[in-house]
Amino acid sequence: MVDGTAEVWRLVWKHPPGLACSPEDVDAFTWRCNGFAFGERGQLDLLRTRDDREIDHLALTPLFEEAPLHPREAILQRWEKLGQDTLDTDARVLGPEVHKRPIVTAMNLADYDHDGASTEFFLQTGVEPNGKRIGVVVGIPSGKNRLRVFGSARHPRKPLILQKPEWDALRASAGPVRVLDWACGDHGSETEKELDLEASPAGIRVIRREYGCDEHNHRGKLLSTTEE
Fold first, then answer.
1. What is the DSSP pairing of strand 74-77 with strand 39-42?
2. Which in 14, 93, 123, 132 has the greatest CB count within 10 A?
């Protein structure tokens, strides 16, 4: 429901998609495919319709610059990757079994900007080292009636890319929320980063704090504070 009117939103491939992070792909069992296995790839649009009439659309493929393996293509998980799916499983057996699984729900609509309307969803667009899923939130911002990729209050036109747990924390919050973005020692990091996130009438406020780390990978003094 958008402003009291029923709509249908669809993720639509502009051409028949190819496979991405498929059971036959060795990378499907590495961190590079976390959240994308087992998926499809291609040129992807988001369409809004009312009474079977298209009223809005948004090209999503340009958001996938950080996606692994298939540059300049969008990737969507189609079938869930289960714990028992491993590289040791015969792909000739696993592939047909995977394709019989239920299709994953790609749009889980929620109220990320806290305007009272569940008209946004998280879209994974990449993977950071150690399998950290990153992405954007897409939907209709407060006071608008067009599809947008959410930016920050400071940079509203630049897609705001956060880790999925960070978007989840913002969605579940009742006010400002602080989240750990990158810990001391994570992949050899010599600094620790945390974010303050808040949905405000001006947009999503993002404050990043960076701290030094000692030889035991414990947080040290504050090095910088920036609004993004």
1. antiparallel
2. 123
The residues near 188 (Cβ < 8 Å, ≥ 6 apart) are: none
Residue 195 class from Cβ within 10 Å (0-12 exposed, 13-18 middle, 19+ buried)? buried
Q: Are strands 39-42 and 18-20 parallel, antiparallel or unpaired?
A: antiparallel
d(CA 175, CA 173): 5
Buried b (16+ CB within 10 A) or exposed e, 101-133: eeeeebeeebebbbbebebbbbbbbbbbeeebb
DSSP state of 168: H
The string of pLDDT tens digits covering residues 154-194 is 999 999 999 999 999 999 999 999 999 999 999 899 999 99
CA pair distance 225, 208, nearest whole angstrom: 6
Instruction: Tell me the chain's radius of gyration from C-alpha atoms.
Output: 19
